[in-house]
Fold S8 family serine peptidase.
Amino acid sequence: MLPKSFIFKLPAAALFALTVSSGKNVAASTAWDPATPDRVTVSTIDLGNNRYTNVVATFNSVISIGNGAPTHNYDSYDPATGLLTISTIKVGTATYNDVVIAITGVISVGGVTPINATEPSTEIIPNDPLFADQWHLKNTGQTGIDRVAGKIGEDLNVSQAWASATGKGIQIAIIDDGLDIHHEDLNVVAGKSWNYITNTYGDPSSTIGSHGTSCAGLAAAKGNNGIGVTGVAYNAKQVGYNLLSVTTSSFDADSVTKDLQSNHIYSNSYGAADNNGLLEPSAEAWQQAIDTGISTGRQGKGVIYTWAAGNGAPEDRSDYDGQANYQGVLAIGSLNDQGTKSSYSEPGSNLLAMAYGGEYCSSHAVTTIDITGIEGSNDGTSNPEDYIGQPNYTRCMNGTSAATPEISGVAALLLEVNPALSWRDVRAILAQTARKNDPTHSDWITNGGGFHINHNYGYGVVDAAAAVNSAKTWKNIPAQKTATASANLTTPLTIADNNAATTSIIKLSNSGIHKLEFVDINITSNHPEVGDLKITLTSPAGTSSTLTTVHDCKLEDITVSCGSSLNDGMRFGVVRLMGEAADGNWTLSVRDGRPRDTGKLIAWNIKAYGY
């Protein structure tokens, strides 16, 4: 404990006059002198665009003191509460970590210098032994089983972000097949995980499936603890919901609103079946649950739902998955260690951004935790491609399943540095700060809002450091508006068989939406074979978004009919039009690309979201 003289109360003084967003790069130890017990000297704090040094501040109480090593290497101030968190402070010959004090005023500032926007931030390299293998966090050219070196620098750039945030104070729910709540490298909230097998709070661990546990490790495995691996948000807490361990889908809606008052982020690495090409709409109850989460979660700021875009390429597009293409979720695709699309990662107009799932264990997948002991992905003995003698860890995790919890971790970093962000702000920050990977890919275009977009990559790969830096000074976007319009099809339009496209135009006027965020498109057609159709939407700014392509459908590797799944209507979602204006002519194009049958476009409408 601190000396008794360090813990005291003073009459309220002037409010802390400086608006502090966050501090970083502490130059020297922050100190407290018993001779002046009402004040503390803070070595370095970044305030907006300036860096202040030797800040002498008064305080009236010590709120809390951490245990063990500090969870940050910088001091931070929350103007909403007046609390200053000091990473390390010297009191005489003793050193204390994570000390939270209530600031009441500022006495003096030793110096101030502008922060150079191009100045490299401090890079944090955790002491976890398997971090060196985690190329998705820091790609130094590591090789996989195939002995092919990764592309240096092709990673999440999170080691730069850790100088500002590590996920402290954020809670992530892992919705999956289970979570090993007793794993040595996880920080799980006691008693708050849910077991859908018994439908009670309890132990959602799976003795066989390791998928959810491996996802949890990618999001937030403990960092700098000298054990195993590092998670993106390595000081965040987690809970697990074993939704996929039950055979019914009746809990889908329940899982995404479970403990809504406590969770900040819900990470979902599952979805429609892969490799079949079928259109899979989402349930209305699930949609309503997502709407509840984004409107009421986090005291009205909305929780963040990350969603796996799917591993069904080339047969599937993420557009076909009615969960991954929903307005309230962030659909995430996967890159390999060269920064190009993982072979299985699905393209889509709903795709927000990319993280890293690698390819396969036989080439180069990602390193994370496995369930404890010999069960799960790695038994520590029988798979020479995996870690021998380390059954609690694996280097064989892959998929958009792996990429999605990585972005859950990045979202945790954003919410730590700026708790005021809404879920829509998080989405906008990720898009605006994404890096244009695979820059020579032919599908890259610039949309009408000035964003680079690609059906295979969304807005690009998430850059954690750029996103965190943006979040520090981010001005929240205005309240969301919506506008709807329907096509005037008094007579259904014939879709010519294997011929020119049928087009229909909707004119949207007076929407008040100058910057789009998302667009829903509902299409009804009696065409008996949706696999014959290529459907595109062109915005008033001229940006084309592909919703379906001519493709085969498969069940257990047998080619089958894709069917008339537009007969009862299907909703598609487009996120690649951010920044464009909503008003103007929206054009739907439907082309039959195979000679066998025909049908009609019966109805379609749009719903625009933006501000």
Summary: The chain has a mean pLDDT of 90. The CA atoms of residues 514 and 581 lie 4 Å apart. The first helix runs from residue 158 to 161.
